[in-house]
Amino acid sequence: MQVRIQWGGDAKFTGTSGSGHDVIMDGPPDHGGKNQGPRPMEMLLLGLGGCTSFDVMSILQKSRQDVTDCVAEINAERADEVPAVFTKIHVHFIVTGNNLKDAQVKRAVQLSAEKYCSASIMLEKGGVEITHSYEVKSPA
């Protein structure tokens, strides 16, 4: 896997993925940026959220759950000192669907956290405390 980061002036960078997709990252104005994209540490959380959401949906689809929506809300705490690493991350899934089985959603979240999500497992090995929760909803 390979990515490329190109400086765009001030605190702005364009990241290009190996699959050819671009994303703009920028810093806040008080750090020389113009707020034209997410911060690099936000990108790390977005990557974690994408990784675990991919797993959860894949597991639920394989277990024939009729999911109509899946949202992962992620909150993180960082150390006060430099480097301001993540110390705690909480991932909360809101899974909506028809006749969803709570046990299947719980299992999908657990399997992602403990076995499949490379991003969260890597961060945990680096000392980040990661917790998970979920709720199951019926479509409105």
SSE string, helices as H and strands as E: EEEHEEHHE
Largest sheet, described in full?
3 strands, antiparallel
- What structural class do the secondary elements suggest? alpha+beta
CATH architecture of the largest domain: 2-Layer Sandwich
Structure report:
The structure is a single chain. With 140 residues, this protein is of the alpha+beta class. It folds into two domains: 1-38, N-terminal domain of TfIIb, CATH 2.20.25; 40-137, K homology (KH) domain (GMP Synthetase, Chain A, domain 3). 33% of the residues lie in helices and 35% in strands. The protein contains three helices and six strands, in the order E-E-E-H-E-E-H-H-E. The chain has helices at 40-62, 102-116, 118-125, and strands at 3-7, 13-17, 22-25, 66-78, 86-98, 129-137. The strands form two sheets. It has a three-stranded antiparallel sheet with strand order 1-2-3, with no helix packed on it. Strand 4 (66-78) and strand 5 form a beta hairpin. Helix 1 (40-62) packs across helix 2. The radius of gyration is 17 Å and the shape is elongated. The N and C termini lie far apart (41 Å). The mean pLDDT is 97.
Kindly list the characteristics that best describe this protein.
single chain; about 140 residues; N-terminal domain of TfIIb; GMP Synthetase, Chain A, domain 3; 2 domains; three-stranded antiparallel beta sheet; 3 helices; about 35% helix
